[in-house]
Amino acid sequence: MLLDSHDFGYIDFDSITGLSNVADNLRMELISRGPEVFQKKDANFAVSAGRSMTLTWFKRSLPNGKEVNRSWLLYSPSKKSVYCFCCVLFTSTSSNSRSSFELSSGFCNWRHTERLRDHENSPSHRISFTKWKELEHRISQGMLIDMEVEKQIQHEKQKWREVLKRILACIKFLASQNLALRGHCESLAEDDTECYNIGNFLATMKLIAQFDPLLSSHLQHSKNVPGSVSYLSPRIQNEFISLLASTVRKQILCDIRRNKYYGLMLDSTPDLAHREQLSEVIRFVDVNFKTKKVTIKESFLGFIQLHAKDAATLENVIVEQLQADNLPIADCRSQCYDNAAVMAGELSGLQQRIAIRNPQASFCFNCSMGENERIAWNYIGITLKRECPTRWSARQDAVNAIHEQFDGFLQLLENLYEDGTQTSETQNDAYSLLQNVMNFNFITLLDFWHAVLSKIDRIQKRLQDPSMNFHDAALDLEGLQQRLSSIREDVCITAVNAAKVLCEKLGIRIEERIKRRKQMPGENAGDAGLAAVEEITRIMKSVIDRLIQEMTTRFGRLETLDEKFGFLFNISKLFANDTSNDIQQHCATLADFYKTDIDGTELFVEISDCSMLLKTRPDATPSSPLELLSFIIS
């Protein structure tokens, strides 16, 4: 407090004697800085009994008319008193010679200015003044007794700083490469044959030590003196990683707050201990006016532990986290979750709860689904794929692998069933699969799904393109819906005909014996349901109808977003002369939604001005909103 405020009244005084308690290191620091920084000549001097201190007190008039600065005189705004610099630092041993200039209360009797001269001429002040100047001289000349000790301390400080720099650089490198730091047996001993893996951290440190004498000496000392301070323990590693993570996170949050608006991207998943945790990702547009660059960033901020997965709990956790990060929820402009009901529900889902708090936080579904898994079962040059419930591409891979090599797949099952070296369980599984596969319904649906999923897979892969925007996504999904509607009849007929040909080739019966069922009132004795071909056709048409219905329901929000923002993605139409009325209407609609952010008239004027600039620069015409924003920033 004393060194920061430069107020001498903050020195520690004894509550009984009133004398100062100044440590040697503080005394040396104060003398090194000098009394000038503590004099407070520009302060508002306190008034007592109608009188106050004046600037003339800081000067002494000699008999010959010259003035000498009283460098020892200090004013304290906190105590509203004056002190003697040297007498406070070097208190007198005689209690009879003490004055108020060296006590905790200080001198504040402005009526008796003669006390200032009396103190200045007192023997105790002269002794303290002499001690002050002698110590000041020794400090300036480096003649202190403990100067060599101080040099050694500074040398040790610098050595440990350099060691910690190397340790930190090694940890940063391994962490940035996503490499493990620890090993099975961490030891610096070279003759320890049991430590075959000391970990990447110690191994990297030993490698650097071969070319760094300082680090080599440090590792040698740590090995020769076990238990000494080395800063190589896992605890130090974790502490460094935690500090690095905290620093990076603070910088990311500063970037987000600097750009103001952001979008939420959240998903929950269990960890290895089966505890639910929520991943927090913030999407924002980083505009750097110095480098004239625009970057769309998605920054991972960490995991949040969950105690429940209902929408209310998720809402409370997210709001609390945003408040802790100092990210106003009013600045949130988008939400991106998966299509789970608890996240995307229109009535009480998380996106609806956030929208109640901030209606401008538009919801957009998440196109990226997840990673598929491979099955380590290769045969005749193909790889069978496991069906993944959360990824359409995995379904396409699973169907396509069997569809393309159906004959080889049947041969494989027959070989496993007839192979006597196999276990009975394997043979039974192969026989059961063979009976299920050699079936008219299976073959028909195999061809049907191959045709349908191939079309879905093309759109799915386009949706996962990082450059995809919701305007193009809405157009692609609309085209997919129209395509499925147009092939509804043809794909069913084609699948049935192909299945008939293959069944005839393999000798598989199409019409199976229909099981008797209880006759219901109003039925004839011959009513036994639809034939096999009619039944499978009904199923396939129902599937396509359900697909179209689900796409309309799930992706309907894209149409709403496209109505608001879609005109900004069609760059050529945005700057066309014959569309100014439409653009003006779109600007008004967008401004009506973002009342606090956008003025529709000003936005239309800005678009018109930008169009004027682009007409004179045909080579700089942007092809995407990101390029347009970069052009505006530049």
From TrEMBL:
Top-level taxon in the UniProt lineage: Eukaryota
Residues annotated as domain TTF-type: 49-145
One Pfam family recorded for the sequence: DUF4371
The protein's name in its UniProt record: Zinc finger MYM-type protein 1-like
